[in-house]
Amino acid sequence: MNTALFGNPNTGKTSLFNQITGSYEYVGNWSGVTVDKKVGKIKDSMQSLIDLPGVYSLNPLSNDERVASIALLQEEAQQILNIVNANQLERSLYLTIELLETNLPQVVVLNMMDLAEKRGISIHLERLGELLGVKSYSAVARKGHGCEEITQLFKNEPLHSSAPFMISYHPIIEAAIARMLTEIGEEGNMKKRWVAVQYLMNNELIQLEMNKKFPGLSRIKEEAEEQLFKAAGHSAEDDMYKTRNAFITQLVEQVTEQQG
Ligand code: GDP
Ligand code: K
Ligand code: MG
Question: Could you name the domain of life of the organism this protein comes from (predicted)?
């Protein structure tokens, strides 16, 4: 069972990785890109933790982002450890949403809790977990706080399977997703809705891979883009981006409190 560590740059990924793995090795490059692949063995567990480059989204503009998508598409990431910067919750949650849409077993770790506290921000962990449908933990990875509890999660597998997570997009987009799912059919064991969503969001890696197998998808997207432009005056990508951000803004309001 492979768990992959996802998070924004500078959220404490390396610090957490070092806390919960006993040893690690570089196992070459990711296929097609010159990004080192680092895999660690989780302490007191048979499971491996794959360190991924820090990214803000899965949309592959850079090689780093490409790796994050490859890990999901090629099913190297069977479970997800999503580290979130508690001090920059709103920005961090964009990636979290993209990861939740995979519906893979996952947990969210709010790191940098010391910095959030210093700024007088308190975060309702349990409420956040409930709203996202995943277990959430807090940590100060630099000091090792909370890391023991996170390590323990890997004693058993799989991780808590998350409650099905779904953001409802514009009706025109939802109709396109439904058509795409029919087109994809039963083939493969992929996270199909996630694939459809990423395809519509112009994840080029997903588009390239999927167009090879399902040539009908591009026509479905084109038709949806036309319809949406007539109805709303913008692209599917813009619309979905807005929907996600509206979801995040509302979520952050519900789970954070500014003290003093
Ligand atoms: P990465 O870029 O995501 O791998 O993050 P690093 O683990 O390299 O951490 C980035 C910086 O944040 C380093 O200076 C760490 O010592 C620091 N850091 C990591 N975790 C915490 C934390 O929980 N609180 C604070 N205050 N600093 C942290
Ligand atoms: K860094
Ligand atoms: Mg790092």
Answer: Bacteria
CA atoms within 13 A on the CB side of 112: 21
The answer to which of 61-75, 100-114, 123-137, 169-183 has the lowest mean pLDDT is 61-75
Model confidence, pTM: 0.94
**Ligand 1 pocket, residue 109 CB under 6 Å:** no
Distance, CA of 106 to CA of 101 (rounded, Å): 11
Q: Report yes or no for ipTM above 0.90.
A: yes
223: Cβ contacts below 8 Å, ≥ 6 apart:
176
Q: Given ligand 1 and candidates 82, 142, 145, which is best to mutate, with the most ligand atoms within 8 Å of its CB? A: 142
Cα(4) to ligand 1 centroid in Å equals 18
Q: For residue 46, what pLDDT band results from cuts at 50, 70 and 90? A: confident
Ligand 1 in contact with 11 (CB < 6 A)?
A: yes
